[in-house]
Design goal:
This protein is mostly beta strands. The chain is about 5% helix and about 60% strand.
Length: about 270
Amino acid sequence: MKSNTIRINPSMVPVDKVIGGEFLYYKNGFDFALIRGLGRIGAAISPANNEETFFGPPSLEFDETRALRLENNEKYKSSKIALAGAFNAYRGKRTGLRRLELNVGLMARYNRDTQGILPGGGVSGILGPFTFGYSIYSDETMLEYDPMGSDSRPVVKYNAESVSAGFYLDSLILDYSVIRLYTERPMSVNVLTGSVLLKRFILTASWRNEKSDRSYYDYETKTLIPMQDKEAIFAGVQYRVAPFLMIGAFHNYYLVGDITLGTTLLF
């Protein structure tokens, strides 16, 4: 999902001449991202959440809050707005196996709960049939309540780092990414994704492994189970209706066994 990627690595913002947006719908709510590319530079803005999504980092929340949310199949709600910009630092004239591109990006995340503005940056590129990316950013989350019983809501500050590598052919795209959160109890997420392009269709399947002290939620017993490694599966299908319009349906995007509908517009 492009909108999720640019909220983690700002250098992934499209820089080609394009105006567009991505819109996701689940349970009477929308998430979206708007992009604008000018040829060498691009910008994007999104109030959508990338925490606790299949391709994003884990959320920071108390077990009681998380268990209730998952029991009701509710997506994690964030109060952050991401503004990202990318610049094409180098684009070679060669194509195919000799193709070389390098983009750099910066972003700012505004947290409406804390009124904090937190910076981040990243690089990404293409080397022949391979893609690569790296980003690091600061973040903070205001928790729902203070477990010590005071009226204040504690704020947790942390850094996040992501590394990605991929391989693409005419009809096949493979990508592997790692996201690490450096908190008092470090967490990491590994995601392996494969996409197949069939005429107007894009079929996507992905596997996610989260390593953290967070418990695993069992939907059958509706209880949290201590587990260090937690796995999940994602599946999606997209159909190109017109050169500027793509529609899709995605399973488990918000990690609650959801079916989410999506639309991408590019002009």
